[in-house]
Structure formats: structure tokens, C-alpha cells
């Protein structure tokens, strides 16, 4: 199920803080038969990696008193799972376990039998049952053992795990006074083309849960980040940055990694990634020493075939629940993540921010260390209340080739310890969806917030994106937004309609925080010449630009890189038509003509590209006119058109073509009008005199 991922990882919550007394020590033996295969929790092999759960269990942390809601397709009853069915959500009143009351069927197929319907329903519970086992399978000598083996599970069933844009946000607050952690094994369908904003109902639910849930201490939400990544050459490659449901400031976003510390082949990356946990890639089977994830399965069985981000999430959910508040869980994860991922070539995927944290869009702050998380929580002091502040807003800023960045100023902000930075962008550009955007902090920490997607044909991009990669820095100073073409040689022209930062964090004592960044402004180069007025006559606008003398792209120029002023060249005049001339031949069939002078200014250099209703439109719209508006013609300061009056032929007139020998500076064309009763052929003479064109419709002879 590569569209639904859950990254809730180690669910070891202690309801009362005194359970962590340093003198307390628990010793026990584990006789669950699959324990020997659970390498990701305890790997006895030398120089092999695990998530250090035994250290946490030996301190008597086992999840007792914790309630975890598994938000999924449903959980099947299992001897290895402790499910409180009295708190189920998403089921009909007829059955606490959610037996289906109807099934899908097409009008051209036979009705589905009761046995088939039952099998289909049981199969739909497979994913949720497997997730539940990783989180909290009991220590009972059967099957596997879960990370928070003393916890209680609640089955929070969503209607479908294939479409989540309109998913019932109220499930995120179901029994929130009782449920401590929501382990969410789903995400929107990532195709490399769609963007999923956070709906108002979803944001309200997250805000309510993290503020009032868990009896006022805040519920914890753990989300998988997606299985639609891959190599850069993959056309459908996507990023969790474009899905706000799984990457917002209320949730813990989790990445899955393999036993050898390599990222999943199809794992997604984004600047909101917080922590990594073990899983396996799809298709791995237990043979030749392959590493698999073992968990509970439907039919009261155990399976070795659970993988990708869906298997990583249930592992993080338990460990996250250890903190005393939702935001403190995030701090504990950041401060206790293992540095094992920095030991191999993954080191290149990490950056070190100004506060000293190493963070990656693929792995967050590192591999989950359950033992360190529990140990650190013993002496953890609550962080102050959260505060937020805005940067200045950029409005209607042009962008194009040679364009470097936008500068947003943050001043007078109380956030001296940054947690989350949200960037809100509205961009109009022919290739808006294919632009890579990076955010650069006052300390020069650079975070790629949007990678750009090759199949994204968006021309008006409106979204908010999150980064945690400035964690611990001071918000004061000048921030930069830097666009780059991800798949094209040049950026091209466009407009940033709006850009603004919303920074979340808290204020701490001066001696415990980074001082404001020392930023030395750079000088601007001189202004360019003013552009031509946007219209040849009447009121319009003209602009000029300047470039920052910032060769290394490491400093800041304060102020705008463009200036726009109004302009008014002259009054738009009506053209003066000439009188009709005498028909060419004194016959009953002839044509007279007159010319209109197109009063264009010297600024008029455009070619004819659209139809105009009259010559005045040609002039006012900066269009040139020749042989009627809308025809292509070379640029000139003055053009003439010919208006012709056609004398219809007699009804019995037969089709005939007249060819004349063109004189000097004149050409002849034949124009045919073909209808059933009126088939005529006219010859048109185009005469050029002193650069002016005259058109005459020649009569029949």
C-alpha cells in the first residue's frame, strides 16, 4: 500500500513522571517466538544497527497507561493485540468490529456472495492489523512483541485509504481526551502533479488535538511521508512537501530506512522530515539472511511481509508518546536521534544548521533511538509556551533570468528559538510547478523547501510549505527565498504575487540562545534604463531594475530590486478616414476604396497578433494594422488599410478569373468567393508607394 504510510514509531509512554525514577530497574525475559527475528529493536550482531528498545524496557517503560489510536482501514481482533472495542470509530452501530453492510459492485457483474464479501472485508483489515502489532503487540509468549507492549489500542477506522482530500477530519480528535497518540498510516495519493493543502477542518482538528487532547497535555500525531519518491529521472517522482496533511507543524513526519541505513528506493524527501525508523523495501523475503519486518496479521497469524513507510510509522508512535506535551515530543526526538546515519555516504545528505543540529530532507534529524528518548525524558524540562511571528510580505515581485532571491525581514520577533518555519507562496509562472525553491536563514542555513516536479504543469502555485531545518536558530534578521529552474536551463519570467514567513518557536534567555545573525548588507548596482511605457498612448506603467552586487550569493541587499512608476505618453486619437475613391472601372461591377491612417506612436513595434474591431483599437492596443487588423506585418511608424465596397455580381454571373500584369511596385492576387449561387473571383491589387500599402479590389472585365 504505497499510498498509505504510517511512521508512528516507538510507543512507550509513561503516564506518571515518577515511573522514570533513576533507581527503578526492570529485568525480564522475552519468550515471544518471533523476538529473535526483530533485528530492528535488538540486533546482537557486532556493528549492526537497531533502535535500542531494550534500554527503555529495562527502565520499566512499556506503554502501560497509554492509549494509541491506529487510524487505518481497521484492525482485526487478534490474540496478540489489546484492543478497546468500546472506543471504536468509523463503524456502523450494528457491529463494533465494523462488518460491512454493503459492498461495491458494478452494474454489469453478478452480486457478490456473502462469503466473498466477508473475505474482502477481512483482507481490508490486513494493513491496520499489521500496524497495530508493531505498535503494541502484547508480551505474552505468542508471536511478536510490540514496542509499547503494555499500551491499549483503539481502532479508528477511516472509510477508505485511497482518497484523503476530503477525509473526515473529526477522526483526528476521536476520543482525544483518552487517546494519547494517533498513528496515521495513510497519506494523499502522490502522483508528481497534485498539491494537497491543509483543509480548514483538518487544521482545526490538529490544533484542537495538540492543544486540548490528552487531558490538556496535547495529543501526538505521527504520520508516514509517502512511497512515491525515487530517482530524479523518475517522471512520477514526488515529494512530501506538496502534501500538507503529512507535513504540517502539528505532526511528526517519519521516514523509513533499510537495515543498511540506506533510504528506501521510493522514499520521499521534504524539509519537514523529523525522524527516521527502520523498515524494508517492497519485495524483500526472509531468505539468504534478508532483513524483514515481523508483525501481527489477519487470521490470528504472524507475517514477515510488511514494509515501506507503513512499517516504519508504528515504530515511532510509541517512543513519541513519552514526552509530557506534543511539542516536547518533537524536542526529545530532535535531541536524542542517533548519529548512526552520519557514518556512511548518507553524510552528504545532511546539513548542519547554525544551532548545531544535523538534519536531512531524507532522514530528518536521524535514526530513532528509543532508549535515549526514554532516558532523556527523565530530566527533560518543559519548553516555554509557543509563540509565532510573521516576516514582511513580498507582493507582486517580478522574477526572471538573472533573478537571485527575495528578501524577507523579521524584526521585533519574540521567537529566539525557532521550531517550525512555514513559507506561504503565490507564484504566477508558466512553469511554476517545476521551480525549485530554497529558504536561507539569517545564519545562511539553506533548506530546499520545494524541489520542483517535472510533470507539474501548475502555472499559478498557491501553497504553504514547512521546514524544520532551522531548528534552534534565532528568527531575527533577513531571510532569503531563492528560486531556481529544476528542469530547464533558465528561470523564465513570472511574478511572485505574495511571499511571507510564519515562524513558530519560543523565547528563551539570552545566554541560552543564538545571538541575532551578523548580516552585512551588500550594495546595489545602478538602476537600469526605464522600460517603454506599457501602452503607446494614454496612462500606463514603466519599470526599471537593479542587481545586488552579491557574487557569492551570501549577503543581502536591502530594498526592492525593481521600481514601477506611471507614464502617460499622449492622448489616444481617433483615425481620420479618407473619402471613397472613384471605382476603378466605370462599369456596374467595380469597387471603390478609401484608406484609414493608423495613428500609432513611435513606440509601436508590435506585430499584428489579434483581431481588432477598428483602426483605433489597433493603435490603442499597440497592434499594427494592414489589410485589416489581425494580419501580420512588419513594424513601421505608419500603416494604411483599405476599406472596400463590393458591388455584387448578377445572379447569372459565371465564375471567371482575371489576371493582370503587375506594374512597378505592385502585385496582384486572386481572391475567390465560392458559394452555390454566387461564385465570384476577384483580383486584388496591392500597391506600395513610399512605404505605404494600398489595396484595390479589381472589377470583372
UniProtKB/TrEMBL annotation:
Active-site positions on this chain: 72 (charge relay system), 127 (charge relay system), 310 (charge relay system)
SUPFAM superfamilies referenced in this protein's UniProt entry, alphabetically: Elafin-like, Galactose-binding domain-like, Subtilisin-like, TSP-1 type 1 repeat
Ranges of biased composition (kind: Low complexity): 654-669
Pfam families for this protein: P_proprotein (PF01483), Peptidase_S8 (PF00082), TSP_1 (PF00090), WAP (PF00095)
Domain of life: Eukaryota
Position of the signal peptide: 1-23
Region feature Disordered, mapped onto this chain: 89-109, 650-669
Enzyme class label: hydrolase
Keywords: Cleavage on pair of basic residues, Hydrolase, Protease, Serine protease, Signal
Residue span, P/Homo B domain: 382-509
EC number: 3.4.21.-
The WAP domain, residue ranges: 591-637
Composition-biased stretches (Polar residues): 89-108
One example GO MF annotation: peptidase inhibitor activity
Family the entry assigns: Belongs to the peptidase S8 family.
Protein name according to UniProt: PCSK5
Native source organism of the sequence: Mytilus edulis
Amino acid at each position: 500500500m504505497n499510498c498509505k504510510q504510517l511512521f508512528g514509531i516507538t510507543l512507550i509512554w509513561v503516564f506518571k513522571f515518577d515511573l522514570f525514577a533513576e533507581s527503578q530497574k526492570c529485568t525480564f525475559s522475552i519468550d515471544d517466538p518471533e523476538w529473535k527475528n526483530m533485528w530492528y529493536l535488538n540486533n546482537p550482531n557486532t556493528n549492526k544497527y537497531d533502535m535500542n528498545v531494550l534500554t527503555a524496557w529495562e527502565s520499566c517503560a512499556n506503554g502501560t497507561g497509554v492509549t494509541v489510536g491506529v487510524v487505518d482501514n481497521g484492525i482485526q481482533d487478534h490474540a496478540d493485540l489489546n484492543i478497546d472495542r468500546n472506543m471504536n470509530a468509523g463503524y456502523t452501530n450494528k457491529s463494533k468490529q465494523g462488518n460491512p453492510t454493503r459492498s461495491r459492485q458494478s452494474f454489469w457483474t453478478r452480486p457478490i456472495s456473502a462469503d466473498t464479501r466477508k473475505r474482502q472485508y477481512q483482507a481490508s483489515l490486513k494493513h491496520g492489523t499489521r500496524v497495530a502489532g508493531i505498535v503494541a503487540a502484547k508480551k505474552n509468549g505468542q508471536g511478536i512483541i510490540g514496542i509499547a507492549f503494555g499500551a491499549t489500542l483503539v481502532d479508528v477506522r477511516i472509510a477508505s485509504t485511497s482518497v484523503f482530500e476530503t477525509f473526515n477530519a473529526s477522526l483526528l480528535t476521536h476520543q482525544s481526551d483518552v487517546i494519547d497518540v494517533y498513528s496515521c498510516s495513510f497519506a494523499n495519493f502522490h502522483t508528481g502533479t497534485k498539491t494537497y493543502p491543509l483543509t480548514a477542518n483538518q487544521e482545526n482538528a490538529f490544533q484542537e488535538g495538540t492543544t486540548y487532547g490528552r487531558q490538556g497535555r496535547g495529543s501526538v500525531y505521527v504520520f508516514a511521508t509517502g512511497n512515491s519518491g525515487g530517482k530524479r529521472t523518475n517522471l512520477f517522482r514526488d515529494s512530501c512537501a506538496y502534501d500538507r496533511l503529512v507535513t504540517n507543524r502539528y505532526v511528526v513526519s517519519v521516514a523509513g530506512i533499510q537495515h543498511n541505513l540506506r533510504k528506501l528506493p521510493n522514499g520521499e524527501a521534504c524539509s519537514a522530515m523529523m525522524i527516521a525508523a527502520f523498515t524494508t523495501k517492497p519485495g524483500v523475503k526472509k531468505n539468504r539472511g534478508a532483513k524483514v519486518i515481523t508483525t501481527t496479521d489477519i487470521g490470528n497469524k504472524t507475517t514477515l511481509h510488511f514494509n515501506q513507510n507503513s512499517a516504519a510509522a508504528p515504530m515511532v508512535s510509541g517512543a513519541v508518546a513519552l514526552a509530557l506535551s506534543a511539542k516536547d515530543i518533537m524536542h526529545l526526538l530532535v535531541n536524542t536521534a542517533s548519529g548512526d546515519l552520519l557514518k556512511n555516504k548518507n553524510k552528504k545528505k545532511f546539513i548542519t544548521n547554525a544551532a548545531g543540529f544535523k538534519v536531512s530532507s531524507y532522514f530528518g534529524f536521524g535514526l530513532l533511538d528509543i532508549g535515549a528518548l526514554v532516558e532523556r525524558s527523565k530530566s527533560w524540562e518543559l519548553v516555554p509556551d509557543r509563540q509565532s511571528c510573521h516576516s514582511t510580505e513580498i507582493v507582486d515581485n517580478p522574477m526572471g533570468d538573472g533573478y537571485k532571491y527575495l528578501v524577507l525581514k523579521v524584526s521585533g520577533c519574540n521567537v529566539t528559538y525557532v521550531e517550525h518555519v512555514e513559507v506561504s507562496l503565490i507564484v504566477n509562472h508558466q512553469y511554476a510547478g517545476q521551480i525549485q525553491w530554497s529558504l536561507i536563514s539569517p545564519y545562511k542555513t539553506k533548506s530546499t523547501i520545494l524541489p520542483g516536479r517535472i510533470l507539474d504543469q501548475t502555472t499559478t502555485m498557491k501553497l504553504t510549505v514547512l521546514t524544520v531545518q532551522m531548528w534552534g536558530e534565532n528568527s531575527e534578521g533577513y531571510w532569503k527565498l531563492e528560486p531556481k529552474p529544476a528542469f530547464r536551463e533558465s528561470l523564465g519570467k513570472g511574478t511572485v504575487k505574495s511571499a511571507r514567513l510564519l515562524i513558530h518557536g519560543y523565547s528563551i534567555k539570552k545566554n541560552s540562545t543564538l545571538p541575532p545573525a551578523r548580516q552585512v548588507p551588500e550594495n546595489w548596482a545602478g538602476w537600469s534604463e526605464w522600460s517603454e511605457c506599457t501602452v503607446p498612448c494614454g496612462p500606463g506603467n514603466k519599470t526599471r531594475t537593479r542587481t545586488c552586487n552579491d557574487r557569492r550569493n551570501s549577503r543581502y541587499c536591502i530594498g526592492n530590486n525593481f521600481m514601477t512608476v506611471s507614464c502617460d505618453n499622449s492622448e489616444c486619437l481617433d483615425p481620420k478616414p479618407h473619402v471613397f475613391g472613384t471605382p476603378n472601372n466605370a462599369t456596374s461591377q467595380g469597387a471603390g476604396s478609401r484608406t484609414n491612417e493608423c495613428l500609432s506612436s513611435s513606440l509601436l513595434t508590435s506585430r499584428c497578433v489579434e483581431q481588432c474591431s477598428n483602426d483605433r483599437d489597433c493603435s490603442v492596443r499597440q497592434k499594427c494594422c494592414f489589410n485589416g487588423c489581425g494580419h501580420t506585418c512588419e513594424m513601421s511608424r505608419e500603416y494604411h488599410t483599405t476599406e472596400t465596397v463590393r458591388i455584387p455580381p448578377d445572379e447569372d454571373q459565371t465564375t471567371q478569373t482575371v489576371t493582370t500584369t503587375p506594374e512597378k511596385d505592385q502585385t496582384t492576387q486572386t481572391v475567390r468567393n465560392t458559394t452555390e449561387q454566387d461564385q465570384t473571383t476577384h483580383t486584388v491589387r496591392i500597391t506600395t508607394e513610399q512605404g505605404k500599402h494600398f489595396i484595390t479590389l479589381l472589377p470583372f472585365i
